[in-house]
Design a protein that fits this description.
The chain is built from nine helices and eight strands. With 234 residues, it is an alpha/beta fold. Helix 3 runs parallel beside helix 4.
Amino acid sequence: MDRYWQQIAVPEIGSKGQHLLATAKVLLIGAGGLGTPAAIYLAAAGVGTIGLVDGDNVTVSNLSRQFLYHEHETGHPKVSVLANRLRQQNPVIVVREHMEMLNTSNAHDIISAFDIICDCTDNVDARILINQTCAMSHKPLVYAAVKDWEGYVTVLHHRKKIDLQNIFSIQSLLENSSLNCSVTGIVNTTCGIAGSIQATEVIKIIVGLPSELDGSILCFNTLNTVFRTFRLNA
């Protein structure tokens, strides 16, 4: 336990919490700007099984914000590169690779094998599918979205039973589907902050701590250094 002694010393975690982390199974859907920071923190914290879902390859345009990828790895599958990084960071964890995009054919089988799901995607259709599958499978979903200087993080389908449709209507999501970070741009630190908060929320769920974001959404703007939390109604 020497690897984890500093977080075991945190009263809310302790040895019991570390054991819960070691036996947890967390799925990250998307291995990009959100998925890379979330994944490396969860691996370092000792989450026992981490699943990765992504069908993309590393490109040069990824490198400014997806910091676990290197230039010589362009053209390689993100999932395999990221999985190797996580295993190097913490050799005792299990990393499951799903080198494919989530779709209606595979979503239930993949998601049902994990305890907690992280939506780290940048695709509206995927977000809707992830939300629906987590609702049907009764899986807590840690949701994040980013663009330019802005980020949003919330916890869905947990104790407060908040659904994505309690925040955004499906129609509004589809109408604004083109407004992702590939179009609006993104500051790399915005991804890092949102992904780190996602990892923190996952750890809190695993060890049984209450989450302020279960029933609320965190909205932040790094240009103005403003963080606000808004209550949601199911």
